[in-house]
Write a structure and sequence with these properties.
Rossmann fold, Isoleucyl-tRNA Synthetase, Domain 1, alpha/beta, binds adenosine monophosphate, 5-stranded parallel beta sheet, elongated, binds zinc ion, 3 domains
Length: 467
């Protein structure tokens, strides 16, 4: 398998620390509200990565945290505590909020066929290990106490900006606007490991510590929880691209200072789902959740397909139009599979051959759209139906689109005559464009639109739908 590694900014041959085994960690949700479909894009693509590794024969152990304490609304250790904000909003306790939104997150994941990681650990379960790590960092001289908080001293590191050549200004883009300078910090990028003195007097969750009653900073949880379950060496760490700085940068700083050696070899970052105005967020524009798109009649798996159609290292723009397209593609795909005969002998050698092709395609830096292309190749191939079904079922272990699940999916009825007419017109328009007769090309498009058919030029060719 090949993977792009954010640490080296190269596509690399993936080599785990222990042959045949993969230790993998994913930054989990902050459970103060529903996940939006942007958050879920990250979890879908990370799910595909995990499943591809398993498909390729690796024995994978995957761990995920649940952030139920300590995540402030700014990544720069300032702003309001997100959990407390959620509790106030809904007039509930922080623990009730955490429970409710953790369940809601996994319910959304189930609808999107995202497998639950082998280990899921809430931050509040692990306070003792956080304290232990912080004590060791103090002992080793990597941390200091100031204004009654404990900070990580980034000036002790030779290279703090491990993710590369970006300048500080660029990196700070991930940090929200409401940054107020913390005068206790010795260096600008120092970050809080443990808060005792805080401006949040009403902070709901507090624990005893050697430095007084308080609560952990956000970054420490991922270092501790991953080490607790995966040991001192990790193969792959995943998260959305905004986690790269400061969260993952700080995780690496404290983990490697604590361990005294390199910690994680591959960093997998999923780029954002954007709306028309920029990065999707919970506070701006329509709050797009799985329940919302379901209430509008969309199948969550059409959204999963929408994500799989593009590469995880490219930003993806969401629109209902794009989701309509994906829905059309999804329904057609399901119907093409549904008509395949179920009986007959499966040619196992052919299945194995296609499985190898699939690993080659999707295993090349999680190239999901190549996986989907291969799926169409199977449907078109000169193979018997039973073998096609077996191959498709096998691919679906990774794609997670329920392709073999029996259900009637409504496709708008298109009569064969109209379809033939539209396809002929599309060919005619292609020829016109080739001859640079754009007037004719536009006229053909307009004529089709009058008949209720909209055509669109996409990277995959011309597509059309009834409007
Ligand atoms: P949070 O619940 O805010 O901690 O975020 C959960 C995950 O979603 C993290 O891995 C984020 O990096 C990721 N994420 C946040 N916004 C987006 C977005 N618009 N598109 C894709 N992933 C995102
Ligand atoms: Zn994390």
């Amino acid at each position: 398998m090949k993977l792009f590694n954010t640490l080296t900014r190269n596509v690399e041959e993936f080599k785990p620390n222990v042959e045949g085994k993969v230790n993998m960690y994913t930054c989990g949700p902050t459970v103060y509200h529903f996940a939006h479909i942007g958050n879920l894009r990250s979890y879908i693509m990370e799910d595909v990565l995990e499943k591809t590794l398993r498909y390729a024969g690796y024995d994978v152990k995957r761990v995920m945290n649940i952030t139920d304490v300590g995540h402030l609304s700014s990544d720069a250790d300032t702003g309001e505590d997100k959990m407390l904000k959620g509790a106030k909003r809904e007039n509930k306790t922080v623990m009730d909020i955490a429970k409710f939104y953790t369940d809601a997150f996994f319910a959304d994941c189930a609808k999107l066929n995202i497998k639950t990681p082998d280990v899921v650990e809430p931050a509040t379960n692990c306070i003792d290990s956080f304290i232990e790590m912080i004590e060791k960092l103090l002992e080793k001289g990597y941390a200091y106490q100031a204004g009654e908080n404990i900070y990580f001293d980034t000036s002790k590191l030779q290279n703090y900006y491990v993710f590369g050549n970006q300048n500080e200004e660029e990196l700070m883009v991930g940090v929200r606007d409401d940054v107020t300078e913390d005068t206790n910090k010795k260096n600008k990028n120092d970050f809080v490991l443990w808060f005792t003195k805080s401006k949040f007097e009403d902070q709901a969750l507090k624990w005893d510590s050697p430095w007084g009653v308080g609560y952990p900073g956000w970054h420490i949880e991922c270092s501790c929880i991953s080490m607790k379950h995966l040991g001192e060496y990790m193969d792959i760490h995943c998260g959305g691209i905004d986690n790269m700085f400061p969260h993952h940068t700080n995780e690496i700083a404290q983990s490697e200072a604590y361990l005294g050696h390199k910690w994680c070899n591959y960093w997998f970052h999923v780029h954002h789902l954007n709306d028309q105005t920029g990065k999707m967020s919970k506070s701006k524009g329509e709050f797009l959740t799985v329940s919302l798109i379901e209430s509008k009649g969309y199948n969550p798996l059409a959204y999963r397909l929408f994500c799989l159609q593009s590469h995880y290292r490219k930003p993806l723009v969401f629109s209902y139009e794009a989701l309509d397209q994906a829905t059309g593609t999804y329904n057609k795909l399901k119907n093409r599979v549904a008509v395949l005969a179920k009986d007959g002998a499966v040619n196992e050698a052919t299945v194995a051959e296609y499985k190898a092709k699939f690993v080659e395609a999707v295993g090349n830096d999680v190239n999901t759209s190549m996986g989907i292309t291969l799926l169409y190749d199977v449907l078109k191939a000169d193979l018997d139906d039973a073998t096609k079904r077996a191959i498709i079922g096998s691919f679906d272990e990774v794609l997670g689109l329920d392709l073999l699940k029996e259900e009637v999916v409504a496709e708008p009825a298109v009569d064969a005559e109209l379809e033939a007419y539209v396809l002929a017109k599309i060919e005619e328009r292609k020829a016109a464009k080739k001859e640079k007769n754009f007037e004719l090309a536009d006229a053909i498009r307009a004529e089709l639109l009058e008949k209720g058919v909209e055509i669109k030029d996409t990277r995959e060719g011309v597509v059309w739908k009834l409007v």
